[in-house]
Specification:
5 strands; alpha/beta
Length: about 160
């Protein structure tokens, strides 16, 4: 059986960094960040672009699932609504996969500190703290394993995910 890790969380919680470390920790692993499937300028949210990104994600994940070289498939994206998770899962061939759906959560102070560091490096904008904080309560409603990463390093987060 393969493992498919679907890892969600609000912007800045540490998904990408933890997933890159998880990829190194697991055998025969591949990593897809959902943001890579929708990296456009200008960034436009329309029905057409939403359908496009979901199709891109589903297509790539299914290719990884069907590829014999990979045992562990790691996917991260914001995934703040159950409908998004369910839609992606409904389009995947998971008959031979253990699917582990995880939401990384943290307290507001930890999130602000992480985002402030990114703002200082020019990776994010000051308004991202408020936008990301507003989405935090949405994760509590999801049918996922909640992992509080407030006091975890990215390496510790990757280790905890690997133990699931």
């Amino acid at each position: 059986m393969k493992n498919l890790y679907m890892i969600g969380g609000t912007m800045g919680v540490g998904k990408t960094t933890a997933c890159k470390l998880l990829k190194r920790r697991l055998d025969n692993a591949v990593f897809l960040d959902g943001d890579w499937c929708w990296d456009a300028d200008p960034f436009q949210v329309t029905e057409e672009t939403k359908a496009l990104v979901l199709d891109n994600i589903s297509h790539m994940l299914n290719n990884f699932i069907h590829c014999t070289a990979y045992q562990n498939i790691i996917f991260c994206w914001v995934m703040h609504e159950q409908e998004i998770i369910d839609h992606i899962r409904s389009r995947l061939d998971t008959r031979e996969c253990n699917v582990k759906t995880i939401s990384l959560v943290c307290d507001k102070a930890a999130l602000a500190k992480r985002l402030q560091k990114d703002i200082g490096q020019g990776i994010r904008q000051p308004g991202d703290i408020a936008r990301s904080s507003e989405r935090m309560p949405l994760y509590e409603k999801l049918n996922t394993v909640k992992m509080d990463v407030s006091n975890l390093t990215p390496a510790e987060t990757a280790e905890q995910i690997a133990l699931l």
